[in-house]
Amino acid sequence: MPNYAQVIVDVKAMQTNRPYTYQIPAELKDQIQVGMRVVVPFGKGDRKVQGFVVELSEKVTFADQIEPKQIEALMDLTPVLNEEALALADHLARETFAFKIRCLQVMLPNVMRASYSKGLRLLPTASSELKQFFGAKEELEFSAERFSKAEQALLRKAQKAGQLEVIYHVKDRARVKKTKFLTSLVTRQNYAEFKAKVRKNATKQLDLLAFLAAKSGQELLQAQVQAQLDLTASQLKKASESGWIKQFERETYRDPTQTKDYGQSVPKILTAEQKNAVDQITSAVKQAQATTFLLQGVTGSGKTEVYLQTIARVLEQKKQALMLVPEISLTPQMVARVKARFGKQVALLHSALSDGERYDEWRRIERGEASVVVGARSAIFAPLTDLGVIIIDEEHETSYKQEDMPRYQAKEVALWRAKYHNCPVVLGSATPALETRARAQKGLYTHLQLTKRINGDNLPEVTLVDMRKAKLTAPDPDFSKEMLEALAKCLQRKEQAVLMLNRRGYSAFVMCRECGFVLKCPNCDVSLTLHMDTHSMKCHYCGHEEAIPHVCPQCHSRKIYYYGTGTQKIEEKLNQLLPDAQILRMDVDTTRKKGAHERILQQFGAKQANILLGTQMIAKGLDFPDVTLVGVLNADTALEFPDYRASERTFQLLTQVSGRAGRADKKGHVVIQTYNPEHYAIQLACQQNYERFFFQEMQLRHLNDYPPYYYTIKITVSAESENLAAKESFLIKKQLAQCLSADAIILGPTPSAIMRIKNRFYYQLVIKYKHEQALESYLEELVIQSQRGEKKGLQVVVDRDPVNFLT
DNA sequence: AGCACGCCGACT
DNA sequence: GTCGGCGTGCTC
């Protein structure tokens, strides 16, 4: 019998990474298990917090004379985290320098994270003044915002005087959805008897009785019966009281796609390359080998079919499959494709689900009712217990890295889980991340290649337009002659075009021609962008909004104009330059609403427009047979980024977007406008030459000591005062210099590329290293110690293998 | 978050 | 001398 439990506690302000010991009350001893959530008292005030049981023991394991406190309650009947999840949380905490509690919570759906509230309850000794303050209520919910400082002082005094007590609530938001059913108890025998008791003119009741008699003994959905016979819930309740029916509730899932019919799709015939890939992966599945495969295949080479047939083999082995795709490509078409092949066995985890729906999908997986899981990044934690394969599509996508605590890389989590389950991992991409391709080169990963497009070899023709020269003859600074001609021809042939505007850091802003003043956000270090739809200037980082100025705020000149180009402005120009064009615009503004993204794609697919104009998001995974022209308006903006992956990103983006042209029998054409036509990333993207790019980029990384030759860790320090942020970052550098060997390189501290966001100043340090004995423990300590700085508004973030260097 | 402890200034 | 300010540290 366990007497004590080790509990990882959810403490807000000061998190330590060690568990706390609690006593298990006698009545819970036979129920408590490792992996359950509990409510425990914590701190001097014994406020109640949620915790996770990570260990049970008979004796106290910590040397202290005080008696541990008792567990207040169990929140679960069965463990919500299994052994694997607990081990993975430990690993994550160590690997990402995150607090254990966060690592445990990230494995569970949001609703299982407790919500806390504080209540104040009147005691009999309360003064009449206090009673008045409470009004008629016994208990008030306390929140700091709701009461004034004076009121808070009053309440505090009353609490000290023993006139009221503080009650802490830990609420489990996980709610199982129940649906009402009923069973008809009306039989041929008792029908007449029931009928005799009903008034002759009570038509509704007589109808119901007849209906029930016809369905004798059957289970019916209450909502359906109500709708069909136009009855209210209370009328059915009466029927239940009369003994006509028996009402009951049953647990149901909130899965909106469950009832949808996706039809059925059959496996396609594989090419020799595809078959080889499926065979090799399947063999690893059968032999339970944790091999990692890099499936490198150009756009249109049929990677998805390899995934689907691999999953089918895994299911034949009575094992389960987990497939990650970037959030942006988790479109209805993509979902339909998987559901059509595997039907109800598929569980879907994506951000569009409500918390409740997500919880239900999680429970379906946990109970083993779904053996194929498809989802975005966080689906990597899906509670599958018998994994046969993990597939990561578009593995080079940076969105597989979580950008807040715990800052995990889903690919690395996949490798860990694969090792735990002895199953293969498939990393798929047309343009693999350099690190991935390098591991394949070294033989750590098995390299599988799909070199042929399914529909024959029809790589698009690429035209590179040098905008430095084009500018002189172009009818417009944003559109070269070549681009406009290609568009016009495409429209003439009644085909479709996709136009990409590389937006980041390149949108319409306002500048004064007289004094050079640029309108900037008052809270962040970025210029405000012009939004024609709302006729205002907006900040993309904090949402600040103000009116469009007509005179320069600095020199009062009237010569204040719009510069740069946003998708809106391009759309307007395009309408003038090509009056025949019907344009659909897809960017942050038009896709903000839920489902808007899909709607735009669907409209374009249905030929309601002939030009799709958008930002990077149009480069990902859309597949329209009639698109024969792809235009890139500004290929270089990603090159200017303060990021050692800038070339790689540019190459990937251009290669991907080029692959969108001419996928079917029609010849495709790609027009790329650039100011750096001789840049290797742009040149090699035009040639669709990944291999050359890989070797060239590897040389540069080697030369500059960047991954995959070095590991990187980024430390970001931010505060409301620039001075404080700078001071702290220099202090950290000093400490780092002491614990690092001479082989390590510290870059910075420097102000981040965007130094100020929401009135906070950002400084960053980047450590490049190969082996450092003391680094891990220093950073672990740094993360824990830096919590105390949070009271002063000082924040320190440690990010292993960072993908974002802007902040 | 909330409570104790400890070190300085203003005060009955 | 003592009361109380809040900066600092800890919570099984």
What does this protein look like?
This protein has 807 residues and is α/β, with parallel strands linked by helices. Helix content is 31%, strand content 23%. The protein has 23 helices and 33 strands. Strands 14-15-13-16-17-12-18 form a 7-stranded parallel sheet, sandwiched between helices. A 6-stranded parallel sheet has the order 19-29-28-20-27-26, with helices on both faces. α19 links the parallel β28 and β29 (669-674). The protein is globular. The mean pLDDT is 87. It binds a DNA duplex (12 and 12 nucleotides) through residues 4, 6-7, 9, 11-14, 16, 19-23, 40-45, 47, 60, 62, 64, 66-69, 118, 788. InterPro entries: DEAD/DEAH_box_helicase_dom, Helicase_ATP-bd, Helicase_C-like, P-loop_NTPase, PriA, PriA_3primeBD, PriA_3primeBD_sf, PriA_C. Keywords: ATP-binding, DNA replication, DNA-binding, Helicase, Hydrolase, Isomerase, Metal-binding, Nucleotide-binding, Primosome, Zinc. Residues 547-701 form the Helicase C-terminal domain. This is Replication restart protein PriA.
Structural class: alpha/beta
Report how far apart the termini are: 51 Å
How many individual helices?
23
Strand order of the biggest β-sheet: 14-15-13-16-17-12-18
Rg from C-alpha positions? 31 Å
Here the CATH topology of the largest domain equals: Rossmann fold
Total E-strand runs:
33
In CATH, the homologous superfamily of the largest domain goes by the name P-loop containing nucleotide triphosphate hydrolases
Proportion of beta-strand residues:
15-25%
Based on Cα principal axes, name the global outline.
globular
Q: What is the typical, i.e. mean, pLDDT?
A: 87
Largest sheet: 7 strands, parallel
> Low-confidence segments, ≥5 residues, pLDDT <50?
none
CATH class term of the largest domain = Alpha Beta
Number of domains: 7
| CATH architectural arrangement of the largest domain | 3-Layer(aba) Sandwich
Oligomer: single chain
Helix fraction?
25-40%
